[in-house]
Amino acid sequence: MNPWIERPLIGIDTETTGLSVVEDRVFEVALVTFQGGQVIDSFCELIDPGQELSDIVVSKTGVRPQDLVGRPTFAQYAQNLVARMADQVLVGYNLLDFDLPILQAELARVGLRLPRCWAIDALVLARGLVQGGRHTLSDMAVRYGVEMQTAHRATADADATVRLLLAMAPELPTDLDELVGLQAHWRDEQRARRAMWRNRGDEGNQGAGLLGAEVSRAARLVDQKGRVVLGPGYLYGREIDPLRAFIAAYCNQAVDSKS
């Protein structure tokens, strides 16, 4: 038995210049560590992304371009982030489809990889537990009685995500491996439903989608034990051919969408 609730839980969140894993950059990252339901450590830094912040991003987060002037770059924090994440239980909201992929891309630019860790996506779990309605972090926080500070800032969102997971705990498996197994099952179901809803009339556009917004969905980021897969060409310390892995991921998605 490996009770996840007894382990340190690290809430993780990023604020970014946009929603493209390939083109956009991280300008704020937060890791908030809980133990026994209490915060025992907090790491949050603003980062110079080397890109302009759009008016939409400024409006959503309250971070202004001048707030990032003179801030360190991601490269200056990269080693510290890897050390903080290694062999830990990471908890995020849309963690598997956005935060981990964009961190993976940022780390790759400085010659590093995501470390081995467990990834718990509270969005996947919330969708599995609560059928219908909206599943934003704010909506789920209200539903489960979780207080939030400033939404759309990394520390507040990371903190609220762990508190939400703890609030959902009575409805979830207590064993870590069972939890990540259930998460994988629910995630596959949710991806299959989204594939059914999405208009896939033009089969020729699937490849273009994979090279853009859909690449993070095709590249599975956790293995069967819930451990992070370090990119499509690197699985828990065992390197395989990246091109073969990418093609396999693409074929798996095509099969999923037809099943």
In short:
The protein has 259 residues and is of the alpha/beta class.
Highest-level CATH class: Alpha Beta
CATH architecture: 2-Layer Sandwich
Average per-residue pLDDT, rounded, comes to 82
What is the strand content? 15-25%
| Backbone structural class | alpha/beta
**Count of DSSP-assigned helices:** 10
Listing every helix as H and every strand as E from the N terminus to the C terminus, the arrangement reads EEEHHEHEHHHHHHEEH
If you had to describe this structure to a student in words, what would you say it looks like?
With 259 residues, the protein is an alpha/beta fold. It has a single domain, classed as Nucleotidyltransferase, domain 5 (2-Layer Sandwich), CATH 3.30.420.10. The chain contains 10 helices and 7 strands. The chain has helices at residues 55-61, 74-85, 95-109, 122-129, 137-143, 154-168, 176-197, 206-210, 215-218, 242-258, and strands at 9-16, 26-35, 38-46, 89-92, 118-121, 234-235, 238-239. The chain has a 5-stranded mixed sheet with strand order 3-2-1-4-5. Strands 6-7 form a two-stranded antiparallel ribbon. It is globular and about 45 Å long. Mean pLDDT is 82; it is low at 201-220 and 229-259.
